[in-house]
Amino acid sequence: MTSPQDQAAEQQAILDGHPRRWAILGVMVFSLLIVVLDNSVLNVALRSIQEELNATQAQLEWAVNSYTLVFAGMLFTWGVLGDRYGRKLILIIGMASFGLSSALCAFASTPNQLIGYRALMGFVGAAVLPVTLAIVTNVFPPAERGRAIGVWAGSTGLAVAVGPILGGVLLEHFWWGSVFLINVPVAIVAVTSVVLLVPESKDGSPLPIDPIGVVLSLVGIVSLVYGIIQGGNLNDWWNVEVTGSIVGGIALLALFALIERRSTHPSLDITLFKDARFSASTAAITLAFFALFGAVFFLSFYLQYVKGYSPLQAGLRLIPTALGLAIFAPLSEKFVKLVGIRAVVATGLILVSLTFLGIQFIEVGSEYWKLAICQAMLGCGMGLTVAPSTNAFMSVLPRDKTASGSAVTNAFRQIGGALGVAILGSVLASSYRAQITPALSKLPKDVANVAAESLGSTLQIVKANPGLPDTQTVVTAALDAYVNALHSATLVASFSAFIGAIVAFKWLPAKPPQSSEPVGSTH
What we know:
- The protein is mainly alpha-helical and 523 residues long.
- It is built from 20 helices and no strands.
């Protein structure tokens, strides 16, 4: 039994924080940076992968989403494992395995191999996010926790900035696999830093693992996303494969929710959503990432295919988004103290929504500064949204349940991103196919079908068959069709962010979030 003196000492230690907390925060940011960096590096490599592996648009979407969906599905399990066996141990296992799976991706020889290895990366990479946030929450005192979480969340902005540039530099000198192989030495540095600096922490009464819930959620969301991607790829939403996948996915997710509601150890704790702060902040982040993931996916193709930039040039032109996020995420805490979390998050999502409305004025021949303004607005909006929302839902969770609890909302963040790529990608693919098909009427039918699949496919067909009729007309029509399709997709993104702003304004608290438990509570 713990004596009153020991309890007092423990509470004082919580109030003071860990003596190496800022160095530990640096290690947590570095570890998270590697995992987040992977997707931002991949975005500038998509064209090279498409050309060298002969990947379709749907396969490229799966190269992104196989990672994201498995990542989302495994967050809770890794969070529970962190609570049970120690967050430091799980972080070491996750980072080491992430480096190994990155090496496998680097040497994939087919699109399907790449998709499979990316899924493996998502499986092990999911260990990093919940335990890093849990470690940050545990080593910082309540007075500094908001700022620390802001820095942690702002690291995603740094990843968005560094990733495209790093990817561009690598692709200027090496093959596409180098964007994955670079993770290996970086993971070694991260593991070494964790071993030397990070204290171990765990939950005295951890939750059991929920294998049925994990399987149902993964199969359900993958089935749903598969149907959405196929619907856009085929431009046929009544195809049996498409409707069957979508309906089956929804049914499995409904079954998952029903089972989790009755489970004593659910992977999705439905009771958390009874708290308006948790529900609203989770919804805000989900809708924001829905818009962000889809937009970055498309803009990479716009910069490289439509504007003709190299991967490095394209990467440099994605910096405004990253800078806005990296600057405003840490500053958001100050704004919250001034005007309240509701106003800050709602304003951030309005900026995200306006960003995509601004893209409606981007054309094939538009000067870059127009897009740069939109990107800067996107970064500022995401910076104002992510950190305050993260702090809002973390304030709801008991201190010793931070890893498993935070996994829930982080899973929704990833699922929102995956659905953004899938749904916005389907809108773009359907719109592009409908608009480009008339321009391909003079081409042989089998060639036209392949060419209509995506902008990359169209340009590859033209490049490989210079003798085809009206090739220049086809190229011009393809660029116009892609930009028009981009407008359609970003309108949907704008609407989703606007809905998020309404949710934030209606249900988030006006004042900065306060912890729902006494400092030092462990229950």
